[in-house]
Every structure is written in structure tokens, then in C-alpha cells.
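Minutes, project check-in
Item: structure for the 312-residue chain
Input as provided by the requester:
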Amino acid sequence: MAPDIHMPKTKTKSVSPKVSMDRGSPTLMRRINIRQLLDAMRVLGPCSRVDLTRHTGLSAPTVSKVMKELLLRQLVETLSTPKQPSTGRPSTIYQLARKKIQFLGLVIDIEQCRVVSAGLDGKEDLERTRVFETPKSYADLITTVSRHLQQVAAEKEGAEVLGVGISVPGLIDESEGRQVFSPNVHYMNGCYPAQDIADATGYITHVVQEEKGEEFLMVSEVKPKFKVPLPPKPKMPTYIARARVDVTTVIEFFVTSSGDVDPRTKIVVSSGYPELDEIAVEWAKKIKFFPALNRGEPVAVRVRVPVGWQSK
């Protein structure tokens, strides 16, 4: 039985509790300070309160007070090994939470779907990534992705799911969460995937267009670089070369934190010749990279590489 399709509702003006937005409002200033410290920790990585004070310009008492609140809310956590200064007591080191909270990401594409998990620091847990074939109907899609989301969440025992980001191809009305048009997954047209997945899982969800979704997954400060020499470029089969083609296969693949190409390589844009696409994928799996870096640490990222085919 197909799930209910959420149709647009007449918009009503929402009523929120009155919060003073004066410049000196304690509530507003507290939110600004929390946001400033969380942003600083994304930039600095593991750091001490002294590091945060220097980076943000906030007073030491303010940083101390906010960090206590973030610890209580389990948005940050302490590392087991303190930072040893040249003199004085060791400094407690904080990092954005990974143990007690998690965010889930869902990528819906024409052939495959992918569920990923990450901590507040945005680092994806590759061991808990799930890739599966895109279901053939909307009802099966909602049922299948909801099950995988809940299973991935359960694998990290005791970690609260703060939200799910959903990336879909096509045109999205983000204000309503409605799929206006999907060029490849047509059964999603007019549907509300975020709301339907929220109803099935109980998680807070948000849907975005796939290009914007790239911003949420596997961000790195230093992009991966090819190790040279590259594998020899494969030759075009003779029967295709005779057709005098000039086409391109665009491949998307994962580069692991060790610089290897993950086997979950897939085609993003087909050349129109399945045999050429398959040859390009096998060639891409042989490429070696210097890994991408985030805060000086190797991280996994997604890479797109065009492979041109031209008859001579």
C-alpha cells in the first residue's frame, strides 16, 4: 500500500514565543556565543578553552560558561589525553561530538541510494555507509530508506540522531520540502520525501537539491591529488571507434583516507555507450591519490573525473 502523499496545505502564520531581539538580550547573546564557539571548533579541530578564547575574542569566563553548557548538551566532548603545556597544569582538550550524537545523510539517485553517518564535526563514518539499489516505486523508496536510516543509527549505540539531510536530483521547493520535478526518479514528482521519511522514522529531516547536498558530505580543506604516473588510458573498442564518436564518461567515486579508490565507484554521466562506461570505471579504480586533508588529517572524499573518448 502506497504511503500517503502530503499535498500542499494552506499556509498559516506561525506564532512563536516572543523573544527579545534587543542587542543586549541575554538569550540572543547566548545563542551568538554558542554559534561562535561551535564555528571556531570546526576550524580549529580539537582545542582548549585558551585556544577558543584567543580565536574568538570572547572572555575566558564566557568561554568557560558556554563550554559547560555544550558539554551538558553533549554537543562537545573531551579527549582522554590532555594537552601538556610547557608550564602549569595540562589543558583539557575539547572536540565536536562524535560519540553521543550523529547526523545521517541520505543520497537518492537514479540507480543507487546511499546512507551515511557523521558526527557534529562532519567526518563521515565510512564503515557504516550503506549503498543499495534505488527502489522502483515511491512507497518502496520510503520504506527501504527509512529502514536503512534506522539500522545505521542503531549501529552507533547510545548516539542520538539530531537530524537527517536528504539529497535528491531535480528541482526542490525547500520551503515546503516538495519535489517539484525529478529528471530521473519520476515517481518522486509532487511528493514530500522529507516529511514522509520523518513520519516513518521519527527523525527531523530536511531535503535539498543534490548539488547543495554536496556541501554536507565529506568536506575537505585540501583536495586529493593524483599520484603519477596515472594508469594507461584504456583504448576504445574497435567497433565503437569506427563510429567516429566524441563522447565523455563522468565518473564519481570515493577516495578513502588512505588515497585508494573505494570500490563503490559509479557513473554519474554516461557516454551513451555502456561498454565505454564500464571500461572507464575499471580504469578509475586503478588510480592512486594523495589523500584529501581536513584540519591536517586524511579524510575520505568524493571525486568526479571526466574520461574523454574520441575516435582518431
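Outcome recorded: The longest helix spans residues 26-44.
No further action items on this chain.
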